[in-house]
Amino acid sequence: MSIVDPNNTGYVSFDSFMDFMTRDASDQDTADQIIQSFRVLANNKPFITADILRSELPPDQAQYCIQRMQPYRGPDAVPGALDYTSFSTALYGESDL
Fold first, then answer.
1. Could you count the other beta carbons within 10 Å of the beta carbon of residue 54?
2. Domains held by the chain: number
3. Euclidean distance between CA atoms 85 and 27, whole angstroms
4. Residue 72: inside a domain, yes or no?
5. Residue 97 placed within a domain
6. Cα separation, 97 vs 86, whole angstroms
7. Membrane-spanning residues where (predicted)?
8. By CB neighbour count within 10 A (0-12 exposed, 13-18 middle, 19+ buried), where does 1 fall?
């Protein structure tokens, strides 16, 4: 969190999130970079919730993600858990979703 929240405010701005997602990146992001960014927002959980997305992303981007993410079906799923891994790989054409 210190990378995306250097002031320890408990809030990650969209600019910080985007900076984190694109740091040390070549000309193109990868699904792995996006997955790592979601993992940071999800506090290292393999899923994310709509509430986290709404609190960390601008409303239009949060809604985009929420509408397109599939439910997370792992054994540690909580109600409303969303699968950011399949979403990220689908965005970058690395899956058939």
1. 15
2. 1
3. 21
4. yes
5. no
6. 7
7. none
8. exposed
Cα four-point dihedral sign 87, 55, 78, 80:
negative
In three-state secondary structure terms, 82 is strand
β-sheet bridge partners, residue 71: 82
Amino acid identity, position 38? F
CATH assignment at residue 62: 1.10.238.10
- Other CB atoms closer than 10 Å to residue 67's CB: what's the count? 8
Let me know: does 15 contact 58? Beta carbons within 8 Å.
Answer: no
Full domain range(s) for residue 32: 14-91
Note whether residue 6 is domain-resident.
no
pLDDT tens across 36-85, in order? 999 999 999 999 999 999 999 999 999 999 999 999 999 999 999 999 99
End-to-end CA distance of the chain: 30
